[in-house]
Write the structure tokens for this entry.
Amino acid sequence: MDIEITTVESIARVRLKGRLDTPGVDQVEGKFTSSVVTGGKNTVVDLSQVSFIASMGLRMFIGIAKALKRQNARMVLFAPQSQVNEVFNTVLLHQILPIVADEAEAVRFAAG
Amino acid sequence: MGKPRAAFSLCIWLHDFVLACSLRRERLFSVLPEQSEFMPQREESPGDRTTIFRRDDTLPAETQEEFGHYLVVLSGAGLGRRFRLEGEPVTIGRDAACGFVLASPDVSRRHCRLQLVADEVFATDLGSTNGTYIDGKRITDTMPLPDGSTLEIGQQVLKHERRSTREVQAAQEIDRDLEKARNYVLALLPVPINSGPIQAEWFIVPSAKVGGDAFGYAALDSDHFVSYLIDVSGHGVGAAMLSVSILNVLRQRALPGTDFRRPAEVLARLNAMFQMENHNGMFFTIWYGVFRLSDRTLAYASGGHHPAYLVSSDRTEVLPLKTRGPLVGVADDYEFEEATMRVPDDSALHIFSDGVFEIADREGRQLGLGDFLPLLGRPAIEGRSEPQRLYQTVRAYARPGPLDDDFSYLVVKLS
């Protein structure tokens, strides 16, 4: 599991690549959390290269989104693959955090 | 013992169990610095800051580590069993005369042989019917079995580990505690029902020693029969602790003022009780259904769970039973939908966890629910329960080693 984080115009842009199963989450969660939650940054997350998500991946996103919300910041997911999106639909993740089609829309949402 | 007191005792027991495991792990890893054969000693003179490492001959004898080669059963019969390889060759098979017996029909009487030569392990297939595989590749001759590799024999998967005997002893102590926890969780699951208008059978294989799945069924009264399955995020001891708590609430019907015949009401009350902020960031999915015998109606609700399925007696119709409902425990203001349907005669209700279908196959491809559903229409196999048949089919598709997630499968036949 790979993670790449950059900040452009005060919005953190996170690119994830690989499987968000338990080992994958273990590899990226620390960096993800410390990079975006500590600063309370609005965050967009590129999921176009995430091929699978398990419950631990959902737990990571929900935990970070809640932590950001407490700091009046928000996280937006974008471009999930169909299999990942199917999981999001099953658990109604969009009720907790926005999931949009592309990066431009995600940035607009994140900027509020 | 009253319900609150029973719940409190359970919490204390689980707390002690996790603490004991933590302490043992600390003890396991805290010995590592003492194992070093060389101890750094600093000798300094003016202008000299060289650090000299000297051999310390005063180290106690117990620091001289003894290593052994072990086979650990990762999946199949005897999960968690550990076997040490010594100098003599060991034959693996289902024949009682074998040095390592695997009592499974897909294992040949004398399946393969392992031999330790100069601190290396070699495996030889003995003309077995189903073959012997090392890390997913079938062997036709004698091949090395490296440390950390898997040995697949039929549906049995074993791992070769070269470990110090002290590590193994500590690991075995943890394993014994985990086995107790596993047995406790299994003891909470209902016994199969083999006769009467409603019959139930199940099969569960945690991906770790204990898992985050649990399920149950019971008569609520003379006219209502409830079935449910819970899947807590993650697996292992932490997830098992929460699933046991939820299971006990449902078994004891310990949600004050709740009508357990109304699925959406039950899920809303569970959601209020198990908010993730109060449960170490964990949430869960659930499918909950209540069958009314008098008019054969099924009321059901889902909390973030994929559908359960109603399978017709001739297996030609597979009907998804899904309502919109969020993950349970994530936010306290959620509402849950409930649906009702009339159940045709002789239908079977299939409720299962996502670990049943979220598997990677032998080529590494990720499979999903759509790949699994056609298996429901396949014929039964005599002598195997339906959940067992489906597990063995999934196991045959999946890559070697334990499944990625807990496999939990419940079938309730509504005759």
User: Anything to note?
Assistant: Chain B has six helices and 23 strands. Confidence is low (pLDDT under 50) at residues 1-8, 18-57 of chain B. The two ends of chain B are 37 Å apart (CA to CA).
